[in-house]
Amino acid sequence: MLELADHILDISENSVRAGAKIIEITIEEDSAIDLLTIVICDDGRGIKQEEVNKVKDPFFTTKRVRRVGLGLPLLAAAAEMAGGSMNMESAEGKGTKLTAVFKLGHLDRQPIGNIEKTLIGLIAGNSEVDFCYKHRCGKKRFMLDTRVIRREIEDVPLNHPEVLKYIRSVIKEGLGSIESKA
Amino acid sequence: MAKLTINDLKKIKEKVHKEMALRDGTRRVKVTVHMGTCGIASGANEVMDAILQEIEETGVSDVFVTTSGCMGLCSREPLVTVEIINKEPIKYEHMNPNKMRQVFRKHILEGEVQTPFVLARGTEVVK
What we know:
The structure holds two protein chains of two kinds. By secondary structure, chain A is an alpha+beta fold. Chain A has helices at about 5-15, 50, 70-80, 115-125, 145-155, 160-180; strands at about 20-30, 35-40, 85-90, 95-105, 130-135, 140-145. A six-stranded mixed β-sheet of chain A has the order 3-4-2-1-5-6. In chain A, α4 packs antiparallel against α6. The longest helix of chain A is centred in the last third of the chain and has 18 residues, at about 160-180. The two termini of chain A are about 15 Å apart. Chain B is α+β, with helices and mostly antiparallel strands. Chain B has a five-stranded mixed β-sheet with strand order 2-1-3-4-5, covered by helices on one side. Chain B starts with 5 loop residues before the first helix and ends in a 6-residue tail after the last strand. Classes of the chains: A alpha+beta, B alpha+beta.
């Protein structure tokens, strides 16, 4: 895991496995207060409070094929390495909210990486799930909500190549316009 | 949202509807890119992007891509499963964008299994 985009993909896949129908990904870059905040919020099945306390333990996992679960510990380590922290709140049956904070200008902060690939991968691979991506860089904002697209294309699936091509160009244009420096 | 507008989506919808009228829109191939932490850490995102770009470039509409979690063979990641209708699933190991493109062109489009990259045939049993 060398880029924050990989972490975002990983955590969002967790949300998908938890049966989420809508996943909100928010990135905020604030150079004035030197902070980079990533929030991933889903409406999946959530986990118990005693399990929330264990998520940073690499030997805790809810999956059954292996006895290790490295996704969250790796993100927590990446945040702590960059002068920040990771926090998770979850309510059983309601959903999970994960917040990771980084010092924007910290030398050890991982680069944000290729958000376009992450989003397209998520949308194409999980076309029954809706994604709402919000990215703020200073005062500039970009937002992509697949619910809006889904409403317009009606019976055409979200993972149809033509639709994905459109979404790809929207993301490219949007990310270009906010001039993210992370 | 960005400058690309809702009108563009309407055009896409009309275009796809026209195509659907010509073809029966069945899904001939299902490709699963394994996206557990292990897969992502070893480059599954690049592999995913490679196949999506190939689909976009060739314009095929009967191949559909999905993701799955960790299946316990983390050291063989990135793993990709190709399931062609009425044929047994093929699992490819240690994938990268170039291997993915080769599998797409040769196996998915022409039906030739790319034996050097194959890990196993058939489906895994999840405990």
